[in-house]
Design goal:
By secondary structure, this protein is mainly alpha-helical. Among the domains are: 101 residues, Tetratricopeptide repeat domain (Serine Threonine Protein Phosphatase 5, Tetratricopeptide repeat), CATH 1.25.40; 55 residues, no CATH class; 91 residues, Serine Threonine Protein Phosphatase 5, Tetratricopeptide repeat (Alpha Horseshoe), CATH 1.25.40; 128 residues, no CATH class. The chain is built from 34 helices and six strands. A six-stranded mixed beta sheet has the order 2-1-3-4-5-6, with helices on one face. Helix 5 runs antiparallel to helix 6. The chain is elongated, with a radius of gyration of 31 Å. The structure holds one DNA strand.
Length: 645
DNA sequence: TCGCCGGTCT
């Protein structure tokens, strides 16, 4: 046995037993290590994630006068790309050109392409592929993957077709990646073609291909097809399960996503932070705080509470469930604060009406030299909007244009239009719409809502036309205008609108509130006294109303949309769904001092808002109400929205 | 002794 192969066997033994350090000690004792030994050490360090050490070894090797070969380069390029060391990578690239590896060796070339795509230097990567004399599937795949992962899905498809036309057969790596691009593009026709190709190539049992197929169907919203793919899987792994769960959430199938998660656990597949953030998203969307808290428990148990994905998902959960303190607790425990986690926290404050907290965090972000992105500004503007910080909002909006290279989207404008409109600066709001490229229905409806708040019938009628041009049968718009006429006392127009709504067969979604008491959800509709214990509820409700009247509550009938006698109007106010839900929750939890969390499918009504403030001071309970748009935290007679919403 | 794959957050 030669000296080299003896050394090699020794290294291999140590590394395979997991003792890279032992191998390293052995290596360091060699007087003049051969190139094969250097390569072995470098690649072992890279594959063990010890990238920085791999680079040190490479540099030491060069200092020692050892000439790198194709093996050295293919390992070390990966190290440079992992650490984002562009300069060093380019210098090594130059050396590989001088030594004649770049265009003549497939291993070196594909590692180079991979490195440049990770540096986001797509032109360089593509040029290398073009120069390589004999291109193989790995080389093409490296470029396809690079394009796909940076969101250049059309380019990925082009390169793929180019590869196929050169008679090079795709492998499972190529197909996995290209399926994802089809999914991202929503190109189900190409996606199905590739599905056929997967079968034809005999790769349908490869787990990565299956996962990508699953993801492709889910991104194209073909949930049933994706479930079919999933059911045909022989061995679903952690990634496959996760892919299915997060895809279901994306398609609004939260309940199924949660049952799939439970099935995953039953199948003894462990979740990781990917899985858990998907499940948390399901909990946040449907405000299932209890389940979310259980997931939080699992996150702590498996030790990923500092993970930025799990963290952002938790912040989002607590934000959407109205618990900003918990959201902040999670945020403060993150190991790495990045722009997404800060955005999540700002957004959590924003939707709960804690504008000043949101702005403080925005300032801290700047002092941390984290570059804000478009989402940051949506969150900050929303924070100003939900707290009535009009001037601050205008100032922030102006600064986006002057200080940042961020393109303003319709969402930014919609937020500003809402902000201006609600503070009665309707003309300014309308002027701002002129700046929006292709203003959509949402933009105009935002202005329409502002008209409703301020009873601007004339402008509303003009704006209504715009909205209906863009969305002729939109129920929300008709209802908005009906409400506007009703609050302006124009009952003839209300009747007219109602008949239009009837003719168009538009259905008004009924107002509904629900409340979560002792892990049971109870739903209430306005005026609906069919709850099994409605007798007790009504008793409590009437008692509450009489008591808060003594504190100054005065039923405000302008929120009643029917033209009824005053007495009947007042009665209809009393049976609003949120009042029923609160009465029920107080009855169920009497003697306890817990917070009450209620949810409403529409926006909370003005009279109920006032009433809830009184109830919070009367009972000493904190009431957290999530309506269709935001949260209201009622505490000691005050609401976090500052009566501005 | 070497290269290319699938799932997460605002």
């Amino acid at each position: 046995m030669s000296y080299f192969s003896l050394c090699h066997k020794l290294f291999d033994g140590y590394v395979k037993c997991g003792s890279l350090a032992e191998a390293r000690r052995l290596f360091d004792d060699l007087p003049n290590p051969h190139i094969v030994a250097w390569n072995y050490m470098i690649s072992s360090h890279v594959s063990h994630g010890k990238t920085a050490e791999a680079i040190q070894l490479y540099e030491k090797m060069l200092e020692g006068g050892v000439i790198p070969d194709e093996y050295t380069f293919s390992s070390v390029f990966k190290a440079f790309s992992d650490l984002g060391l562009v300069r060093k990578g380019q210098r090594a690239h130059a050396l590989s050109v001088v030594l004649g590896f770049e265009i003549f060796n497939g291993f070196v070339a594909s590692a180079l392409v991979d490195m440049y795509t990770k540096f986001d230097k797509m032109r360089d990567a593509h040029l290398i592929l073009d120069r390589v004399v004999e291109k193989d599937v790995v080389l093409f795949t490296a470029l396809i993957v690079g394009y796909a992962q940076r969101g250049h899905d059309n380019e990925a498809l082009q390169v793929f077709e180019n590869m196929v036309s050169q008679g090079i057969k795709a492998n499972e790596y190529t197909l996995s990646s290209i399926l994802i691009s089809c999914g991202n593009l929503g190109n189900i026709v190409k996606g199905k073609l590739i599905h056929c190709l997967v079968i034809k190539s005999g790769l349908e049992s490869a787990v990565a291909s299956q996962t990508s197929l699953l993801t492709m169907y889910l991104r194209c919203s073909l949930v049933d097809d994706s479930i079919k793919v999933f059911n045909q899987l022989s061995h679903a792994n952690q990634v496959t399960w996760t892919s299915l769960i997060s895809g279901l959430v994306e398609n609004g199938r939260e309940e199924i996503a949660l049952s799939t998660f439970r099935e995953m656990i039953r199948s003894s597949i462990n979740p990781n932070s990917f899985t858990l953030s998907g499940v948390l998203q399901a909990c946040s969307s449907i405000a299932m705080l209890e389940v979310g808290e259980q997931i939080h428990g699992i996150i702590v148990k498996i030790g990923v509470e500092g993970d930025k994905y799990a963290g952002a998902a938790l912040i989002n959960l607590y934000g959407k469930c109205g618990n900003t303190d918990m959201a902040r607790f999670v945020f403060d425990a993150l190991t790495e604060v990045d722009v997404v986690s800060i955005n999540s926290m700002i957004y959590a404050y924003a939707q709960n009406g804690f504008g000043h907290e949101a702005l403080k965090l925005f300032e801290r972000m700047k002092s941390l030299r984290l570059e804000p992105n478009d989402v940051t500004f949506i969150s900050v503007l929303l924070a100003c909007n939900n707290s009535g910080l009009v001037d601050k909002g205008c100032q922030v909006f102006a600064s986006i244009r002057s200080n940042y290279k961020i393109e303003l989207t319709r969402d930014h404008y919609a937020c500003m239009i809402d902000l201006l409109g609600r503070s009665r600066r309707l003309e300014e709001a309308e002027m701002l719409i002129k700046e929006v490229r292709n203003p959509d229905m949402v933009i105009w409806r935002t202005l329409l809502n502002a008209c409703r708040i301020h009873g601007e019938v004339e402008m509303a009628e003009r704006v209504m036309k715009k909205v209906l041009e863009l969305a002729p049968g939109d129920e929300g718009t008709h209802i908005l205008l009906t409400n506007l006429y009703a609050s302006a006392g124009k009952w003839n127009q209300v009747i007219e609108m109602k008949s239009t709504i009837r003719d168009l067969k538009l259905k008004k979604s009924p107002a509904m509130s629900w409340v979560d008491v002792d892990r049971e959800v109870h739903t209430f509709m306005a005026g609906d006294l069919s709850h099994p214990i409605s007798h007790e509820i009504l008793e409590i409700l009437h008692e509450l109303i009489e008591k808060v009247k003594t504190l100054g509550y005065n039923p405000d009938t302008k929120f009643v949309l029917q033209d009824l006698e005053e007495e009947k109007k007042i009665r209809s106010l009393y049976y609003h769904s949120e009042k029923l839900a609160i009465a029920f929750a107080l009855w169920k939890t009497s003697g306890r001092n817990t917070n009450i969390r209620i949810f409403k499918n529409l926006r909370v009504c003005g009279d109920c808002h006032t009433w809830l403030k009184f109830v919070s001071s009367l009972t000493g309970r904190d009431i957290i109400a999530r309506d269709a748009k935001r949260f209201h935290h009622f505490k000691e007679g005050v609401c976090s929205c500052g009566d501005y919403w």
